[in-house]
């Protein structure tokens, strides 16, 4: 690989890290010709290059060090999203919402407080929106490699025993982390 190509690939990786991890968009910023499907394939090919993969890993590790975030921290927070009990927030006043435990408050993505009056009766409504549990599950699955197992199944011939052994290992890994 030429040094000029590597420099451009590093720019693609940097863009990927700042644009919400959209590989297709990152690739198209520096290689605008072609469609989305081709850009997605090309981005994956770039990430398969060992030197580029190492560059991405280094960037991710340095970011993790700066933010002082570990894999366990990420998984713990995702677990909080998944296990949120919505009944903790039913029929709360605005003051009670403010006094919710921090781990519950941080899961709120939207808050709306409305006051209406109908025929002399005042009605207060508090609407809270939370992170998606489905998205959190998806993020956990990506983080601990469950989808990697699925992708491995699509790309190679694996015996049923090997596949079950791999799934058992991933489940053990998830238990250790959580």
Which keywords apply here?
10 helices, 3 domains, mainly alpha, two-stranded antiparallel ribbon
Quick overview of this protein structure:
The chain is mainly α. The chain contains 10 helices and 2 strands; from the N terminus they run H-H-H-H-H-H-H-E-E-H-H-H. It folds into 3 domains: 3-67, no CATH class; 78-132, no CATH class; 145-177.
Provide an overview of this structure.
- The chain has helices at 3-18, 23-30, 36-47, 50-67, 71-83, 94-98, 102-105, 133-144, 146-155, 160-177, and strands spanning 108-118, 121-130.
- With 178 residues, it is mainly alpha-helical.
- The chain has a two-stranded antiparallel sheet.
- A hairpin with a 2-residue loop joins strand 1 (108-118) and strand 2.
- The longest helix has 18 residues, at 50-67.
- It is extended, with a radius of gyration of 22 Å.
- The protein starts with a helix and ends with a helix.
Strand content: 5-15%
Q: What's the pLDDT, averaged over the residues? A: 82
The domain tally reads: 3
Largest beta sheet: what is the strand line-up?
Answer: 1-2
Helix content: 55-70%
Distance between the termini: 40 Å
Number of strands: 2
**Biggest sheet details:** 2 strands, antiparallel
Radius of gyration: 22 Å
Q: Helix and strand succession?
A: HHHHHHHEEHHH
Shape: extended
